[in-house]
Structure formats: C-alpha cells, structure tokens
Fold:
Amino acid sequence: MTAPEIQKPLLDVRGLTIEIETRRGPAVIVDGINLTVGKGETVGVVGESGCGKSLTMLSLVRLLPNKIKVKGGTAEFAGRDLLRMSKSELRQVRGGKIGFVFQDPMTSLNPVMRIGDQLCEPLIYHRSMNKAEARTRAIELLRLVGIPGPEQRITAYPHELSGGMRQRVMIAMGLACDPELLIADEPTTALDVTIQAQIVDLVKDLRKKLNMSVVWITHDLALIAGLVDRVAVLYAGTVVEDAPVGELFARPTHPYTRGLLASIPKLSDERASRLSSIGGTPPEPGRRPKGCPFAPRCALAEAVCHERVPALEPVVGSNGHRVACFVAQRQMMEAA
Amino acid sequence: MAAEPLIKVENLVKHFVVRLGAFGERGATVYAVDDVNFDIFAGETLSLVGESGCGKSTTGFTLLNLQKATSGKVIFQGENIVSLDEKRMRPYRRELQIVFQDPYSTLNPRMTIGEVVGEPILFHKLATKAELPERVSRLLGDVGLPARFAQRYPHELSGGQRQRVAIARALACQPKFIVCDEAISALDVSVQAQIINLLLDLQEKYGLTYLFIAHDLAVVRHISDRVGVMYLGRLAELATREQLFSNPLHPYTKALLSAVPEADPELEKTRQRQILVGDVPSPLSPPAGCRFHTRCPIAMDKCRAVVPEWREVVTGHHVACHAVDMGTAG
Structure:
C-alpha cells in the first residue's frame, strides 16, 4: 500500500448537501458531507442502503435523478468545482477524467448495442480516435479486464455475456480513457464470491498500473478490508467516521462503526453464538432526527446527542482518524 | 444428532425443459439439480451454499414439493412426499415451511399483517376465528414485533420487519422444518444480525430444523451444524461446519472459501488467495465428467470423462472428487 500524498487531494468534497422533493416538501438526504481522495489513493465509502453513498457520488458527475438536487457545498476535482462547471466542461470530465462503474451491468449497458461499439464511443468522443484505433484500444481494454477471446467478444451483445463478464465490460468502459479517478458503485454486489474475488484482484492490479485514484462504494466492510487505503463510514447522509483502513478495523470509534463491525460473523465465533446487532433501523429521508442521526439507535446516546449534530473531529493521538460523536470525543478528552 | 434423519433426500433430480430461440423453436434441458443425496437431522441447521445457478434454491423448492421432482425421493415421516399430489401433500405442508429472500414481494400488499400471519392458521383449522387475534399477537411477539402491527399493511414496514412477518407466518402452524431460502440476503448488515439472532432463538425455543440456503459463507459458518456445497446442480462436498471450514477437501470448496473476504485488513494483506479462472458453465450444457473440471486447478483426464462418486471419506464428510479419492488433492 502506498502512502497517499497529502498536499493536494485529487477530489475534495466539502459540505455537500443533497435534498429530495417529497410531497411533504424538501427533505435532506445528504447532510454536509466532507470527503477527500488523494492521488493514487483508494477510498472505501461504506454504509447501509439509503445512507446516501450512491447519491453523493452521482452528484459529483451531476447525474442525480430529477427530484433530487444539490443544495450546497463544493466538489473540487483537480482544482475545478464539478458542481459549478459548464456542461461542456463537465462532458470532458464524465467518462474522460472520471470513470464510473455502476452496480448493475444489465441495466447500465445498452442492450441493443454491441459491447465493442459501447466501448469505442468514449474513445472516439474523448480521445478523438478514429474507428480503427478505437477498435484496437477496445480489444486491448477487454483483454486488460480479463475477457478471453476479446477479438470475438467485441461483437457480442450484453445479453450474450455472463454477469461477471458484463461487469468486466463495465469496468473496461470506466477505464477506457485512462481516468484519474474511478468511482465504483457496488461493482461486485450482484456477483458471486469467486467472480467478486476476480474483479477485486483486477482493480487492485489496474490502479497500480495506471496510478489511478479509486472510490469504492459498498455496504460490505469485509470486502474493503483488503482493498482500500482509507474508509469513510456514512450513516443517514453524514460521514460519522473517516480513518485509514487498518486504524478503522483496529480502533473503530463511532458507536455505529463498532456496531457494524460487531454484527459481521467472524472466523473465531462459536457456532450459533448471538451476534451483536444494532437495534432499530436507519431513519427514512425526511424523518431525520434532530441532533446526531444515529442517536435514536445508539446505546451511549446522551442528552446532547439528541440536541446538536456532532462535527467530524480528529481522534486524539491518531494520524488521519476522524469521528463525529460527542461521547467518543469526550471519552478521548478524559483519557488524554 | 439423532440417528434417524427427519428428512432423507435420495437421488433427487430436477430438470426444467425450456424453449430457446426467438420463437421458442428449440427445446433444451436445464440440469438444475442432478442426483443429490443428503439427510437432514431433527434440530440441526443444514446449509446449502454455492454460487447463483448452482441449484441450491431449486433443491429447497423441490424438496418441499413446490416443484415436481423429475426423479428421486424425499422421505419425510415414512412417506415419499415428492410423489404426492397437492391434496395428499396438504397435511405435510403444515410441518414444512419456507421463508423467501425478498420480503417486499412475498407479502400480499392488500392483506394486513394480522391476515398474512393468520391465514395459514385458519386454512389448517388450527384455531377458530375467535381465538385468532390472540394467536397472531403471540406469533408477532415471538418474532419481536408489537401486537398492534397486526392492523398494519406491509408497505408500512421496513425490510427487517417484513422478514419478521414472513418468519411469523412460517411459524404459524407450528412446523418442524423451515427452508430459509436466502432469507437474510436482502437485508442490511445491522438488520441481518437481528434476523440471524431471531432464527437462532426460535430454533432453540421450538426445536426447529432449518435448511438454510445462502451464498454468504460468513453467515453460514456462523449458524450451521453441517454445510453442503453445490456446484452446477450437484453436491460437491457435505460435512460438519468444523470439517468443512478447517479441512475442505473439494477444490471448489477450497476456492470458494478463499474468495470470501475477511473483515481484517492485517489478515487480508498476507492472505494467499486462490482465484478461480473463468465463469460457471451453463446448466443447459454442463461439462461431462466432474462438472467443475473446466475451472479446477488440479483437473485430470479422468475428471473430464467420469463423474466422480459421491462418497463418505471420513464419518460425516462426503465429497465427490477423483483427486480426493486418489489422495492427490493438495
């Protein structure tokens, strides 16, 4: 694992706030998220369904669905604010400097276009290649992501490929223009474990070869343990903890992170021992509680937690570990 | 473990005939489950694992006679239940229940939770209409839901709560055996742990036997007494939890276990992975011989021609692999 450069992050998201229009009026679903990704760094964004992890990433390339809007914040990518740049500038970034891999290759690939043509499209648009050059590069890309017989496969339609193969095509498309940043949104969730292992291996290998930054969105903490440099844990649209991966697993500090880690069955468990679980369910958008969003489910919650929202503060004596929890912060102060 | 199994599955086969081509002009057979043998003992949790399309869910469905078996037997209380028609099957239905994966599509959206849970009780005439509310509220209590939920509709509930309702419905006629078909796969991690705990509590309280069908090996390792690994319609290996996870014999089991990520960055850094090459072949035309030979790192000529025999190598440890038989599996 390489030490990420600290000077200037490639992606710097500050105070990102996203709202959804509902019948009862606008509801906040992403609430002031801060997130940085360094050059060559791989960051895991972890959270349960509805925590806003996918919307955060979609908002960066301005692909949010109609009723969902960015209400505040900035997202600087290589010094330019993605949220405010012109449409033509944005088109250069999308698929060019930022590659995207979506969760479900069945709905993200065009079913009536041969995969070769889909792969060539960004190359012709962003790299001004002619058809023959693009085709050569498309074959190269398919080979890179481990698709056997790429010369033949290039004329296949998506339905002719297996799920693992389709996901590889998606990754090849994300990588087509040598992006500086690859955003992968649950790219292996729909796949079997043996295929997942192949894809994870592939991404690890490629980021080294291409010195690419990666944001890997997932709900699976075990999966990112061996894959990322740093983890941001999201809960109900806020970052509750942000730490280097080893630090997060060794010293999880936020009660939610601790609960999540404890609810994963481990090798050392006795059979049928009770798993520790977090009671209750995450709040729905529009019904976010006042104060810390996790407070209603938190065993340690105090009066202040129901009143005010904790800020993401550095953990005492750590390197780059931050947590948003009044109780954890107070305990650290007392211990110090 | 009791000597006499609760359910005996013998040479179970399920083939589907499908029509292919734009106009369905070509017929083909999906070899979904092929010659599967295992016993399920009273009070245990037997898990079936494998990748999508391996036939684990079909095994569960066929075993409950929800789909007609192509051939083979499933012996329950001395009767081969897969040979019964729906009417003669009915008394057994009460004892054999199932919980499905998706709690969003398995509950009737127009029925209240009370009606959903009460329906099987009335159907099997286990209580009168007057006794029903009491029974329903006790069942909801069993699965950790307040009695007032009986008046609600499924859309008012979260995914975890719906799955609790599905479990309450399965429990309604006091079954002996429940098939949990990916029952926790659609839930978030923190909620998943709640449902696993609930299933374990209910098993202890009512002496239930589970056939747990799942693809998440960490969960399976946590809750199972015994585990069967399926590949392309056949059982590759079946053993106790300890045997399977500490001493896997079949090359596919080994690869499957090594592909599961552990929530431990230190371990992951040093871990040796065995990554399989290629995809699972189509069940429309499974490979001859051992079905795993196209991806197997130690496949021999024999594996491409001869189907390996399903045999017990150590007490309780079954495997179908030529290399294991010859003692050449690493």
Chain B touches chain A through 47 residues (CB under 8 Å). Residues 262 and 269 of chain B are 11 Å apart (CA to CA). Residues 7-84+226-326 of chain B form a domain with the Rossmann fold fold (CATH 3.40.50.300). Chain B is about 30% helix and 25% strand.
